[in-house]
Amino acid sequence: MPHQSESPKRSQIARNTENNTSLPRYCPNCGAQVSHNADDCFMCGYRFDTPKPRRFRIPFADIALVLGLIAVFLFWWRWDSEQRVLALTPTVTPIATATPT
Length: 101
Prior knowledge:
Layout: H1 8-19, E1 25-26, E2 33-34, H2 60-88
Antiparallel strand pairs: 1-2
């Protein structure tokens, strides 16, 4: 027995409920009102099936982590250089001398 495809009425009902036809549909490019079944805008030719290009975004947490690591590194580097300067600075040590009594 050959498989029968959906009747046109069922297909249309499924398409209408899928697209929520109670609200008007507008072209995101020119703003013209278009049919819910349209594949492109009749005014400007905008294709509705083309995906919008996504901008690459760096998450805030990643930026905060990198800035935090840089701050820790700079603090450590500065503190370490101060310690080396203190270690290399000569200090005068008093020499014990005999005092007459």
